[in-house]
Amino acid sequence: MAPVPRERILADLVANADGTLRKLAKPAPAYGCRELFTSMLAYAEAHTNLAAIATLLAFAEDMQDKDPSHRSYGNFRWYARDAEVQDYNAVDFCMQHGALLWRFRRDTLPPETRARLLAVLRLGLRGLVKHLPPSTYTNIALLNASDLVLLGEALDDPAAVAEGERRLGVFIKTLWEEGVHEYVSPTYYGVDIESMLLLESLARRAETREVARAILAHFWTDLALNWYAPGQRLAGTHSRTYDYVSGFGELDQILVATGWLPLPNAQKGMRPFRFSTFIPLYANVQPPPEARALNARYPRLVEQTWGAEPFRARTHDVCEDVTLGISWSAYHGRMDIALAADFPCDRTARLPRLSFIPDGRHDPYGKKTVFDGKTHSKAFHLSPWWAGVQDRADALGVAVYRDGDFRDATGTLESHLLFRKALDSLWIDEARLILDPSHASTNRVPPGASVFLRQGTAVIAIRVPWTRGQDGTPSPVAIIDDRNPYGALRLTVSHAWLDPADHPARIQAGAAFWLRIGSGLADEAAFAAFRRSFQAARADIEVSTNALSIQVAGLRQPLSIAAHAPFDCDPVTSPQPPRVTLGFDGDDLGRAALEKCAVIQDYLKSRRQAPPVDVVADHPTVWEAEQATLTVPYEVATNDAAASSGTYLWVPEIGGVNSGGSGRAVYTLRAARAGRYALAARVLTPTPDDDSFLLSARTEGGTELFPETVWSPGVFKTWTWREISQPGGRGPITLDLPEGTSTLILRSREAGSKLDQFRLTPLAK
Predict the structure, then answer these.
(1) Are 426 and 411 in contact (CB under 8 A)?
(2) Paired strand residues for 716
(3) Would the pLDDT of 710 be above 90?
(4) CB 610 within 8 Å of CB 745
(5) Three state DSSP letters for 679-736
(6) What's the pTM?
(7) Is the pLDDT assigned to residue 269 strictly greater than 70?
């Protein structure tokens, strides 16, 4: 498909700006800061209604914080109704369009308006510097770095440009180490790609353009692997989505502009598609041909990490007629989709995906918004403990609802699998289910029964091998047709919910879902054989109030998940999660794309494997904190004579703010014989904002010695030995080291916290 003409995009942008002007003319208008800059740029780029730019600018001036004593100095209130800056991302979105307006169209403005705009942009640049999102906050980290470079260049501020380039360097190194944290988001991938397209096209320095190009290559590859062309959507699991049913988002803007998606036609009862992105006006938005080629390859197994921790991973099995994906742990934003499957469909039909929704507000379709406590209202679901495992066509997921998971709950507890009503057939075991289109219905699924969703040559099979309510009894499972307007059915586990005031000792509710996909089933005989095979496959369940162990017989190997209360740490699974940044059938295409960049090549030259620490059993073992395998943004400082050897380990602060990215320092501990040890560290933690770390330990085989724990040693302005203790004064952390090799992992929690040495002291058992 051909790219969309520039004239069509610009016409839509001007129409959006006209809508903003109409809002501003109303009494007590409701508007956001972002649309003010979007509208100014639209009128300037189209060279129309230029007089309105001064009016829009006046509203923007009113929304900007001009008090140098405020943390939000230079930033903007997101909404006109806000009394102060609440969402610090506002400056990043505003300055993207502000930079383009100044760079390309400032000469269209009258001198007075131009001077006022310059003052707003200079102050906005200060706001960008003060707002330092961590690299793990993927979309805002990229937007912020891109803005600093492009606005800094436009305003001839080399210090801001250098800081933007530094942040971009931290990001690409974190990406190489850990993958995309905000993984496969239909909205945030749009922000990511748009930011890097602008930077790759407009940055003055070739080195900066090269970094942006490498990041773009990673994202285009990621998109190509996870884009399901027969379903015309981003498939598999999502870290954050604003559309639980269809899985559409801002990414569509770029995909339509490139011709990757067809330009949607107006449909009765639906808002017409309208462009809101400027990026195609300033940048080459075409993906590389090799990405398109990847997207056409079936079947393909996508594996990727979204963090340094072992279970921050996802897998996605993509066949031409069906896909299945799972996240191995939950993305704790309460807007993730941790289990998903897709059939082919025409995008204009907006048919639902299969997706898992943990629900405490009887909102299975994600349409009831609640206030997020800061600025926005969003349709949050619950955030239970989640563990997943997948082996190609089979996926097993387990959700456990803990007492702390019921934020915004309203007295119901349900686990839903949404799926499309428009199917060729729907079965419960060997009985085909025929729904009455004129009546709502609830069709019970017996314990252990299998549900089959058939579409064309593909099938999605579902079993619910374990359920439990808060009263400790099994929960009923049913296929529910509530005649919703979204074309969705749902398989719902209705957990018994108990009021905590009346039942303080509630049992943790939960459910397990086992899905298997079948592809290329040519006829009824093949479909029947698939049903028989899945129904006969064994599921072994051992669950108590304190532990669970679930194993199912996958097509190629058993899949299992084992964990124990209080369900606040990683499970034990078979198979184990993948540790590939962005894999295609076992090849890490993500790192291959990034390693072409000189910044990554230099980083890899400096990234050394630290020698092991030999732990002795008869006296304390002391070693330097720098004796670690380090990842960005950890640094070894050499400027403190009071530290051992004059050096120490830290994540630097820039102007008192975290320099971005959590990073990790990994220590290999080699014990001559098994023993119990107390762990201590020599720290310099000068303020309450610089006095905590994250620590965890594992055996060489991956068994947890202790889960990741927040350690706050207290405020110490000189180097001080402190025993590493559990949060809340629950006593010291002891390490039961086995004979052989174990791993101690340090992650940054607060930049500015400094470590000089560690000490392991043997204890009598």
Answers:
(1) no
(2) 685
(3) no
(4) no
(5) EEEEEEECCCCCCCEEEEEEECCCCEEEEEEEECCCCEEEEEEEECECHHHCCECEEE
(6) 0.92
(7) no
Closest by CA to 441, choosing from 368, 510, 492, 497, is 492
Q: Answer whether 95's CB lies under 8 Å from 146's CB.
A: no
- Taking CA atoms, 497 is separated from 257, 387, 475, 491, 503, in Å, by 47, 22, 10, 18, 10
- Closest CA relative to residue 441, chosen from 433, 429, 430, 432: 433
Task: Tell me how far apart the alpha carbons of residues 18 and 121 are, in angstroms, rounded to a whole number.
Answer: 23
Straight-line distance from the first to the last Cα atom of the chain, in angstroms, rounded to the nearest whole number: 70
Residue 171 dihedral angles phi and psi, to the nearest 5°: -65, -50
C-alpha–C-alpha distance, residues 704 and 356, integer Å: 28
Q: How far apart are CA 378 and CA 243, in angstroms?
A: 11
Q: What is the pLDDT of residues 2-40, one digit of tens each?
A: 778 899 999 999 999 999 999 999 999 999 999 999 999
Classify residue 423 as exposed, middle or buried by CB count within 10 Å of its CB (0-12, 13-18, 19+). buried
Taking the C-alpha atoms of residue 463 and residue 327, their distance in angstroms, rounded to an integer, is: 18
Give pLDDT, residue 655. 54
Helix residue spans in 288-435 (DSSP H): 289-295
**477 forms bridges with which residues in the sheet?**
493
List the beta strands (DSSP E) in 487-589. Answer: 488-494, 509-518, 539-543, 547-553, 558-564, 572-574, 582-584, 587-588
Minimal CA–CA distance to 510: which of 444, 417, 414?
A: 414
Question: pLDDT tens across 145-202, in order?
Answer: 999 999 999 999 999 999 999 999 999 999 999 999 999 999 999 999 999 999 999 9
Inter-residue contact 356 to 397 (CB < 8 Å): yes
Local structure of 447: helix, strand or coil = coil
Residue the block writes with tokens 């773009």? 216
200 Cβ partners below 8 Å, 6+ apart? 209, 212, 213, 216, 283
Cα torsion angle, 419, 423, 427, 433, sign? positive
pLDDT tens across 332-370, in order? 889 999 999 999 998 888 899 999 999 999 999 999 999
Using CA atoms of 171, 177, 182, 188 in order, give the dihedral in degrees to the nearest 10: 40
CA distance 561 to 396: 8
Give which of 92, 76, 93 is closest to 84, Cα–Cα.
76
Q: What is the pLDDT of residues 216-267, one digit of tens each?
A: 999 999 999 999 999 999 999 999 999 999 999 999 999 999 988 988 875 5
**CATH hierarchy code of domain 608-763:** 2.60.120.260
Query: Within a 10 A sphere around the Cβ of 25, how many other Cβ atoms?
Result: 9
The pLDDT-based confidence of 58 (bands split at 50, 70, 90) is: very high
- Cis peptide before 727, with omega less than 30 degrees from 0? no
Quick check: 702 pLDDT over 80? no
- Residues 319-350: b if buried by 16+ CB within 10 A, e if exposed: bbbbbbbbbbbbbeebbbbbbbbbbbbeeeeb
Domain boundary assignment for the chain: 1-88+114-128, 311-578, 608-763
pLDDT of residue 740: 92
Q: How many residues does the chain have?
A: 765
Which tokens in the block code for residue 754?
Answer: 């400094």
Those residues whose C-beta lies under 8 Å from the C-beta of residue 475, and which sit 6 or more positions away, are 467, 468, 469, 493, 494, 495, 496, 509, 511
282 alpha-carbon distance from chain centroid: 28
Burial class for 515, CB neighbours closer than 10 Å (0-12, 13-18, 19+): buried
How many Å apart are CA 713 and CA 723, to the nearest integer? 8
CA 454 to chain CA mean position, Å: 31
Task: Give 3-state DSSP helix, strand, coil % of the chain, rounded to 5.
Answer: 30, 30, 40
- Residue 557, phi then psi, degrees to nearest 5: -165, 160
Alpha helices in 155-306 (DSSP H): 158-178, 188-202, 206-226, 251-258, 279-282, 289-295
Q: Average pLDDT for residues 75-83, to the nearest whole number?
A: 96
